[in-house]
UniProtKB/TrEMBL annotation:
It comes from Stappia taiwanensis. Carbamoyl phosphate binds at residues 54-55, 104, 132, 135, 260-261. The keyword Transferase applies. Catalyzes the condensation of carbamoyl phosphate and aspartate to form carbamoyl aspartate and inorganic phosphate, the committed step in the de novo pyrimidine nucleotide biosynthesis pathway. This is Aspartate carbamoyltransferase. It catalyses: carbamoyl phosphate + L-aspartate = N-carbamoyl-L-aspartate + phosphate + H(+). The lineage of its organism: Bacteria, Pseudomonadati, Pseudomonadota, Alphaproteobacteria, Hyphomicrobiales. L-aspartate binds at residues 82, 165, 219. Residues 153-297 form the Aspartate/ornithine carbamoyltransferase Asp/Orn-binding domain. Residues 2-144 form the Aspartate/ornithine carbamoyltransferase carbamoyl-P binding domain. It is an enzyme of class 2 (transferase).
Length: 305
C-alpha cells in the first residue's frame, strides 16, 4: 500500500504486520537512544485542519525517531484562512516534494480526495466521522499486549458512536481480527444501519458491558451536535457515564480504554479513568509506536530515486 487511508481495505495480515512492527517500535522508544534512519532524507508534512494533541505530536515524534524531516503545517496561520481550498493547499505542498503527508480534516472523504491529488504517500489522521486508522491500530496493539490476542474477545464501545471515526475504524479492525463487538449508546447517537457493520447494539450500559473484556469509552462530541440533540451532561453521565457501578457488569479483569481527549465526569468517572483497570496512558505510548510502524511500512513503498 502506498497510502493508509482507512482500516477498510486492509487485510488481517496487513494489520498483524503493522502490529508486529509496532511491537519493535515500542522497544526502540523505551531505549535511551531512540533514533533510526529509515526515513533519513525524507520529508514528512503534518497537515491538521482540526485540533489534535495526541495524533499530531505522536506523528511528529514518530517521524523524527525514524530520521525524517518533519514539518508541522500550521493551518490556523496558513492561506486556508484566506480562502485557499484543500486541493490548492495540497497541490502547493506537493510542489515542495514531500514524501509523506499526514492529514486530519473535518470532512469525511477529504483525505481520500487529497491522496488523489498529490504524488506522495498520504496517511489519514482522522477525516470527519469516517476513519481514524492509526487510532484503531494503537488500540489493537494495546489490547493485544494485555490480553495476548484480539480474536474472541468481547469489546464494548460506548457513547457517541454517531460522530466517531474512532468507533468506525475500531469496529472494522476488531471484526477483521475476529473479536465480538458490542456498542452502547442512546438512539440519537447511533448511526442508522450500524448493525450492518457486524456489531450487537445495546441501549443499556449493564447489558452492553455484560461479558466485556474491553470497555472503550468515547467522548461526547458536543461540538458536532446542535439544539435539542445535545444531551444534558448530568443525564448523560447517569445513564452512559462509566463509573464503578456500571463497570462491575463487565468481566472482573476488564480493561478500560478511551482514545482521548476525555471529558471527565461526562462519559467517564475520573476514578475509573485513573484507576487500575485504565489503559488510557498506555494507549498514548502505543500511539507513537504504531505511527512509527505505519511510517516505516510506507517507507518501503517510497521511490528510491
Ligand atoms: N485520539 C485522538 O485522536 O486524539 P487527538 O484529537 O488529541 O489527536
Amino acid at each position: 500500500h502506498r497510502h493508509l487511508l482507512g482500516i477498510e481495505g486492509l487485510q488481517p495480515q496487513d494489520i498483524l504486520m503493522l502490529l508486529d512492527r509496532a511491537e519493535a517500535a515500542v522497544e526502540i522508544s523505551r531505549q535511551v537512544e531512540k533514533k533510526k534512519s529509515v526515513l533519513r532524507g525524507r520529508t514528512q508534512i503534518n497537515l491538521f485542519f482540526e485540533a489534535s494533541t495526541r495524533t499530531q505530536s505522536s506523528f511528529e515524534i514518530a517521524g523524527k525517531r525514524l530520521g525524517a524531516d518533519v514539518m508541522n503545517m500550521s493551518v490556523s496561520s496558513s492561506s486556508v484562512k484566506k480562502g485557499e481550498t484543500l486541493i490548492d493547499t495540497a497541490a502547493t505542498l506537493n510542489a515542495m516534494h514531500p514524501d509523506i503527508i499526514v492529514v486530519r480534516h473535518h470532512a469525511a472523504g477529504a483525505v481520500h480526495l487529497l491522496a488523489q491529488k498529490v504524488g506522495c504517500s498520504v496517511i489519514n489522521a482522522g477525516d470527519g466521522a469516517h476513519e481514524h486508522p492509526t487510532q484503531a491500530l494503537l488500540d489493537a496493539l494495546t489490547i493485544r499486549r494485555h490480553k495476548g490476542k484480539i480474536a474472541r474477545l468481547t469489546v464494548t464501545i460506548c457513547g457517541d458512536i454517531l460522530h466517531s471515526r474512532v468507533a468506525r475504524s475500531n469496529i472494522i479492525l476488531l471484526n477483521a481480527l475476529g473479536a465480538r463487538v458490542k456498542v452502547v449508546a442512546p438512539a440519537t447517537l447511533l448511526p442508522s444501519g450500524i448493525e450492518q457493520m457486524g456489531v450487537e447494539v445495546c441501549r443499556d450500559m449493564r447489558q452492553g458491558l455484560d461479558g466485556a473484556d474491553i470497555v472503550m469509552m468515547l467522548r461526547l462530541q458536543r461540538e458536532r451536535m446542535s439544539g435539542a440533540f445535545i444531551p444534558s451532561v448530568r443525564e448523560y453521565f447517569r445513564y452512559y457515564g462509566l463509573d464503578r457501578e456500571k463497570l462491575s457488569a463487565a468481566k472482573p479483569d476488564a480493561l478500560v480504554m478511551h482514545p482521548g481527549p476525555m471529558n471527565r465526569g461526562v462519559e467517564i468517572d475520573p476514578e475509573i479513568a485513573d484507576g487500575p483497570q485504565s489503559l488510557i496512558r498506555e494507549q498514548v505510548e502505543m500511539g507513537v509506536a504504531v505511527r512509527m510502524a505505519v511510517l516505516e511500512a510506507l517507507a518501503a513503498h517510497l521511490p528510491t530515486r
